[in-house]
Write a structure and sequence with these properties.
By secondary structure, the protein is an alpha/beta fold. The protein is built from 10 helices and 13 strands. The protein binds N,N-dimethyl-L-histidine. N,N-dimethyl-L-histidine binds next to helix 9 and strand 11.
């Protein structure tokens, strides 16, 4: 280490709480969902270390414009968002991932604390440590938590009013009734005078939406199929990824993308405490990604109890960012 390194200010390692064991056991949940009449795997199981990286790669794809559209909206309207959200407040980032989106808003929001919440504990810990080096003056806290089931903010999170940040259209991964319940809980986490900053993908051309989830490079296919490897690890199962193919399509009737893994042949899969046979072409449902209309988005926020809401859209009208008063 050179003498300059020795004098560099030391950034505190962010506090990190692993709250993943609170609540239902993910292994029990997986075994039950795989044994269900219509088998499914909850989308949170996508995000092991490789899945988190594959999702980062998806965000770079030309066919997946969502992340870039949202970035442009934050660049263009960051100050207007900050006016609504208020400065010097705790910023609670739900599904923080690589923390990159929130970091872009640090300048305008000037948060009093950054709280990054994600199910992918190792990935979050690693990214948060790197973030703390770039922002040594900002108190940070990492929470490994399945916030989709219950959002629990420990006492280490500064009290409200808070800014809750839920970008990337992850709201679309909830079915509409669950989205409503989630937003009600989120409003409570904001506290009176707090604000939700939400990203939502909008209904658009079916061909473009199909391509966004079935890209020719196969990155989304890898992301989808990787869930089977994570399942193997979680419940000691023996899925062979080579036996399955990626299926994704937009259904205009339900306004959602559906993702499945489909058996290429008859397969028998075993896991600790059980197993199941699948016939060729049987599917396991892995994700829904609902797309919103602007009136639908506003109505949902209003039903969840949010008040004054401002919505910005990109020029193609494919993506929306909302700032909603709690
Ligand atoms: C995290 N979530 C909003 C993404 C989506 O678009 O539903 C996950 C994803 N699945 C396939 N591509 C991206």
């Amino acid at each position: 280490m050179g003498s300059n390194d020795a004098k560099a200010p030391l950034a505190a390692v962010p506090a990190f709480l692993d709250l993943r064991t609170a609540g239902a056991d993910p292994a029990d949940e997986l075994r039950a969902s795989l044994a269900a009449d219509v088998p499914f795997i909850a989308p949170k199981f996508f995000y092991d270390a490789l899945g988190s990286r594959l999702f980062e790669a998806i965000c770079e794809l030309p066919e997946y414009p969502l992340t870039r559209a949202e970035r442009r909206l934050f660049e263009r309207h960051g100050e207007a968002i900050a006016e609504r959200a208020g400065l010097d407040r705790p910023l609670v980032d739900l599904g923080a991932g690589n923390c990159e989106k929130a970091e872009r808003l640090f300048g305008v929001l000037a948060p009093s604390q950054y709280v990054a919440v994600d199910i992918a504990a190792d990935f979050l810990r690693e990214r948060l440590a790197a973030l703390a080096l770039r922002h040594p003056g900002l108190p940070m806290l990492g929470l490994a938590q399945d916030f989709t089931a219950a959002l629990e903010l420990p006492d280490a999170v500064q009290p409200g009013p808070r800014t809750v940040f839920y970008p990337g259209s992850s709201i679309g991964n909830f079915a509409p009734p669950a989205a409503l319940e989630f937003l009600e809980r989120t409003r409570a986490a904001c506290g009176a005078g707090g604000c939700l900053v939400l990203g939502a993908d909008l209904v658009r051309d079916k061909h473009a939406l199909d391509l966004a989830y079935a890209d020719p490079l196969g990155v989304t296919a890898a992301f989808n199929l990787n869930v089977l490897r994570n399942v193997n690890r979680c419940i000691d199962a023996d899925f062979d990824v080579a036996d399955w193919r990626h299926v994704a399509f937009f259904d205009p009737v339900t306004a959602r993308i559906e993702m499945h893994v489909e058996a290429r042949c008859d397969v028998a899969v075993r896991w600790k405490g059980g197993g199941r046979s699948f016939r060729a072409a049987d599917r396991i449902h892995t994700e829904n990604s609902y797309k919103y209309t602007l009136p639908g988005l506003r109505a949902l926020l209003q039903r969840a109890g949010f008040g004054d809401t401002k919505v910005w859209t990109d020029e193609e009208g494919g993506f929306a960012v909302a700032a909603a008063a709690a």
